[in-house]
């Protein structure tokens, strides 16, 4: 995304960029902050308080009828604005009308549809998609994988600082080991070439890790599993690094493959994660196990996938099915 032209929003953009927020989060937060300012007729947020925040969130629920997660995202953006930017964190007095709009059931592909989708992806983007489906990863979790996050002996991946800052270990399909070996070889090729440059600052690490392990940015294991093809300047300090592959590249490829297949349902990177969870449950996996694999804090979030598996509404068999079977002509005639 482009840097906002508004000095106030541009400062927020720079602050979030320096704090290493994902670009998708920066874009979403700036959208809601901009919406909030316009809702209050361009009055500066510093002169507004919790009453105005509550009025905006209530407007989203009552007038816009946004989903629960959408309202929660707007709230998170304003919490960031007042706590991190304006240094005026909210108190417990914040009161607003909560959205009641039910969440949609997730879109899930059949195993055959997953196989067809994967077969239509470009070769260089196949492995990230296979990991999203095979290990239940979010697209940014796949993009942020580092070489040392792969545990070939225990067939698992380490996911660090996932959604909510949580860490987890997830399953890894043994069939992907040869492809992973080839991918690491590609990373090593870039790595050895980059080290020849005197201005190469190594891969980015969170500030605490960079201080604890000052040599780590120059080590292969810390480098991204899916590196960008070009070196780029770190927006925080201008040093030369090799970032990970942009998630939008994978997202566009998956959408394009879905359109070519004419699946008749909306498909995104997250659809592969939904399919992973649903197919695990269909194979008899315990819901707590699936919860751990997905990194959900609340099992109720995971339970939505059980609704996808149910036959009919709440598993009820329609009486028309018995009637239909009774009136069908004999197969032998």
From TrEMBL:
Superkingdom as given in the UniProt entry: Bacteria
Gene3D superfamilies in the record: 1.10.150.130, Intergrase catalytic core (1.10.443.10)
Keywords: DNA integration, DNA recombination, DNA-binding
Boundaries of every Core-binding (CB) domain copy: 4-86
InterPro entries, per the entry: CB (IPR044068), DNA_brk_join_enz (IPR011010), Integrase-like_cat_sf (IPR013762), Integrase_catalytic (IPR002104), Integrase_integron-type (IPR011946), Integrase_recombinase_N (IPR010998), Integrase_SAM-like_N (IPR004107), Tyrosine_recombinase_XerCD (IPR050090)
Family: Belongs to the 'phage' integrase family.
Protein name per UniProt: Integron integrase
Annotated ranges, domain Tyr recombinase: 104-318
């Amino acid at each position: 995304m482009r840097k906002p032209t508004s000095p106030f929003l541009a400062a927020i953009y720079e602050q979030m960029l320096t704090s290493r927020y994902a670009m998708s989060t920066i874009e979403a937060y700036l959208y809601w902050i901009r919406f909030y300012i316009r809702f209050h007729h361009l009055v500066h947020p510093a002169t507004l308080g919790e009453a105005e925040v509550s009025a905006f969130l209530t407007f989203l629920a009552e007038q816009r009828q946004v989903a629960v997660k959408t309202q929660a995202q707007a709230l998170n953006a304003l919490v960031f604005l007042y706590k991190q930017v304006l240094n005026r964190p909210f108190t417990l007095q914040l009161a607003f009308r909560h959205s009641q709009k039910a969440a949609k059931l997730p879109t899930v592909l059949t195993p055959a549809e997953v196989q067809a989708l994967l077969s239509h992806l470009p070769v260089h983007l196949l492995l990230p998609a296979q990991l999203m489906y095979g290990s239940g990863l979010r697209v940014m979790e796949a993009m942020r994988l580092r070489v040392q996050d792969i545990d070939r002996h225990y067939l698992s991946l380490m996911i660090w600082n996932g959604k909510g800052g949580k860490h987890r270990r997830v399953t890894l399909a043994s069939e992907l080991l040869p492809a992973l070996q080839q991918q690491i070889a590609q990373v090593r090729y870039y790595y050895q070439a980059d080290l020849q440059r005197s201005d190469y600052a190594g891969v980015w690490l969170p500030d605490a890790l960079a201080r604890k392990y000052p040599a780590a940015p120059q080590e292969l294991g810390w480098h991204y599993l899916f590196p960008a093809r070009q070196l780029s300047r770190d927006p925080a300090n201008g040093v030369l690094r090799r970032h990970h592959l942009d998630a939008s590249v994978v997202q566009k490829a998956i959408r394009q493959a879905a359109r070519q297949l004419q699946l008749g349902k909306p498909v995104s990177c997250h659809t592969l994660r939904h399919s992973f969870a649903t197919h695990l449950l269909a194979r008899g996996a315990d819901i707590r196990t699936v919860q751990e694999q997905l990194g959900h804090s609340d099992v109720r979030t995971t339970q939505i996938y059980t609704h996808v598996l149910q036959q009919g509404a709440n598993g009820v068999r329609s009486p028309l099915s018995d009637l239909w079977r009774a009136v069908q002509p004999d197969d032998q005639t």
